[in-house]
Amino acid sequence: MVPKKTIGLRDIAEKTGFSIKTVSRALNNHPDVNEGTRQKILSVAKKYIYYPNLVAKSLRTRKAFTIGYIVPDITNEFYGKVGIIIEREFRKQGYSLLISFTEESAENEINSLKLLLAKRVDGIVLATVGTTGRFLKEVIQRYHLPVVVIDNKEKGIRSNLVTHDNINGAYSLTKHLIDHGHKRVACITGPVEETSAQERLNGYKKALDESGLTVEEQLIKSANWRVDGGYDATFELMETEEGRPTAVFVANSIMALGVYKALRKMQKKIPDDVALVAFDNLEFAEAIDPPLTTLGNVEEEIGKITAELLLERIMRRDIQNVKEHLVKAQLCIRRSCGCE
């Protein structure tokens, strides 16, 4: 029967006969501990429910063993999946994750950064709204805090970045619609002040240009990243019979749900009346009818690269050596685009 009371390093040392130093090294996976010794110590630690004294460890190492994760909306499956991977990787190193939601607000993002600074986190993963560069620059330089930005570049600063290859991803999706013979392809993107939205718009335009098609501004709509953004933008695109698009590239899959909803309300069939493709291969993409053509999953790769990059920065306290990673994805073809 497992005892209810937890024990500390001294207790484990007494029960195993090893020194406190050896017990500490074994529990922290130090390489100079014999594997047989390590297993004996771990067995006792597990049996008697050992938990490290994180307060004492923090005082000794001057680390909080905590990472901040700032995202616009955790209900967005993309941020949830990336967060799970980041937390999993840092948990192996004894870190926990503090999550803060900004609701796509620059003011909330700054407040989240201030809150995490006050809690003395060891590093931050930030899915930025893209307009808090001045404050973020101060956070990095004044406090020497390791920061990795995901999903959207922060203008005006040199920061570690892990994001989709937005331009080539949008290009591939748009080109796929053009290869189906569509001449009037619309684009619904996010707020264009965000680099992810602007880059996906640029990829869309690149595909039209290379195919000899005119970029028509009336076929481009900027909206919020949510379902209602896609819904409202679709009604704007379909306002008049003349000049309506026959296909739409949507800059994220959540907005695409709004497009489905709007087209069904108009009694338009996908892909017969309007073909559709979208960024992000979220789990519902296969379940809706018709299944949505998207890019393949990149959340695990983004999460792992982000965790590795931030951990490296924390260990070295390096804020000068900036790295950028663009994660590529292949087309995930389903029936919404017209493919069988």
Task: Describe what you observe in this structure.
The protein is of the alpha/beta class and 340 residues long. It folds into three domains: 9-52, lambda repressor-like DNA-binding domains (434 Repressor (Amino-terminal Domain)), CATH 1.10.260; 64-164 and 299-327, Rossmann fold, CATH 3.40.50.2300; 166-295 and 331-337, Response regulator (Rossmann fold, 3-Layer(aba) Sandwich). It is 44% helix and 15% strand. The chain contains twelve helices and twelve strands. The chain has helices spanning 9-16, 20-27, 35-47, 54-61, 77-91, 106-118, 133-143, 166-179, 195-210, 227-237, 253-265, 299-316; strands at 66-71, 96-101, 123-126, 147-150, 160-164, 185-189, 220-222, 247-250, 275-278, 293-295, 324-327, 331-332. The protein has a six-stranded parallel beta sheet. The chain has a six-stranded mixed beta sheet with strand order 7-6-8-9-10-12, with helices on both faces. Strand 1 (66-71), helix 5 (77-91) and strand 2 (96-101) form a beta-alpha-beta unit. Helix 1 crosses helix 2 (20-27), helix 8 runs parallel beside helix 9 (195-210) and helix 10 (227-237) packs across helix 11. The mean pLDDT is 89.
